[in-house]
Amino acid sequence: MDYLKASDLPFDAREQISRIFSDGFYQWLRYFSKDKAKLARAFEHSFKLPLFWVAVDGNAIASIAACTDGITSPVSLDRHELQRHLGFVRGMIAHKMLKPYLQEHKYPFTLTAGTGSVEFVATAEKYRGKGIAFNLVAHIMERCGHAEYVLEVADTNATAVRLYERLGFKEFKRVPEKNPKQSGLNFYVYMKATGKAT
Predict the structure, then answer these.
(1) So what's the pLDDT on residue 182?
(2) Which of these, 85, 191, 89, lies nearest to 148 by C-alpha position?
(3) For residue 136, which of 161, 118, 153 has the smallest C-alpha distance?
(4) How far apart are CA 99 and CA 106, in angstroms?
């Protein structure tokens, strides 16, 4: 398994990244379409490849994660592209609902200089349970050189919380979800770790 930036791959990674993203975050995307393939096509345009890291098995992307400065978004949503794949109304709703969270998301705390943000961690179904996401995030933490890393995770995603704890992340803040019945989570949990994974 190789771990590298998506922009360094010898092929365009957007299609595979979008499939993994759409499957991994289906719980929040299924309102716009129950068809995962359609969701993948709709979001394929949005990924900024220089900000995404991938675990690659040959020509297959096994896992994805973005690392940013916490200010720059790793995605850029185009309303027309969303409408082209999801339909005029659903695409417009998807853009209106998702842009504030995916593209303009702000942490509920002040980021200090030198802080990196780990985002959109997801693994392709056939590669889950093999420690690949752990290794990918560990690689990011070693390569990106930030003094500190932060991330956001749903309180109901116990598997992800345990993974991040193994990487040295500790919870320091949680914020209640305004619509828990619709979203399926109770709190947004914020975790941070220093430098390299432990």
Answers:
(1) 64
(2) 191
(3) 118
(4) 12
To the question of pTM greater than 0.85 for the whole model, the response is yes
DSSP code of residue 102: I
Total residue length of the chain: 198
> Does the structure show a pLDDT above 70 at 77?
yes
Q: Quickly tell me which residue has 């759409």 as its tokens.
A: 22
Structural domains of the chain, ranges and CATH numbers in brackets: 2-145 (3.40.630.30)
Paired strand residues for 149: 116, 193
pLDDT for the residue 183: 65
pLDDT band at 197 (very low <50, low <70, confident <90, very high): very low
Cβ within 8 Å of residue 58, ≥6 positions away: none
CB 170 within 8 A of CB 192: yes
Contact by Cβ (8 Å): 120, 74: yes
